[in-house]
Amino acid sequence: MSSTKNEEQELAIVGGQSKIRGSFQGGNFLIVEGEFAGSIQCQELVITRRGKIEAWVEVENMEVWGEVNGFSRVKKVICRKTSRIGGCIMGGGIALEPGVVIEGALAFEKAEDVENEGKESS
């Protein structure tokens, strides 16, 4: 037996014809090809070109090709040229390709704020 820990990636997909309302929590990876409204908490989130979310989002990394509305708190986000941002994205690292449409807001957290998060309650 090996002493290394094998971690399986948990993947969830909201299909292109799907319209979901509710809460997604946990898992490693969520791909939204359709529409999602509600709240999302996971490690990795990808919104495809036809994907649309209107949600409260808290993720480690997010890649946006489609449309995001609502409040998103992320450590790192990449907004591709086809993306449309209609809400607020707060993050430690935000990358924008030329062509992104921003109708909302981007807020950058200071590195020390991100590093100290959760330490105050210890």
What topology emerges from the helices and strands here?
Blueprint: E1 11-14, E2 19-25, E3 29-32, E4 35-47, E5 52-64, E6 67-69, E7 71-79, E8 84-85, E9 88-96, E10 101-102, E11 105-108, H1 111-116
Parallel strand pairs: 1-3, 2-4, 3-4, 4-5, 5-6, 5-7, 6-8, 7-9, 8-10, 9-11
Structure description:
The chain is globular and about 30 Å long. The chain has 1 helix and 11 strands; from the N terminus they run E-E-E-E-E-E-E-E-E-E-E-H. The chain has 122 residues and is mainly beta. Strands 1, 2, 3, 4, 5, 6, 7, 8, 9, 10 and 11 form an 11-stranded parallel sheet that branches.
Basic shape: globular
Helix content: under 10%
Total count of domains: 1
Question: Based on DSSP secondary structure assignment, what is the total number of beta strands?
Answer: 11
Count of helical stretches: 1
- Overall mean pLDDT: 86
Determine the strand fraction and express it as a percent band.
Answer: over 45%
Structural class: mainly beta
Q: Helices and strands, in N-to-C order? A: EEEEEEEEEEEH
> How far apart lie the N and C ends?
37 Å
Question: Spans of 5+ residues with little confidence (pLDDT < 50)?
Answer: 1-6
Largest sheet data? 11 strands, parallel
Rg value: 15 Å
Key traits:
122 residues, mainly beta, eleven-stranded parallel beta sheet, 1 helix, 11 strands, disordered N terminus
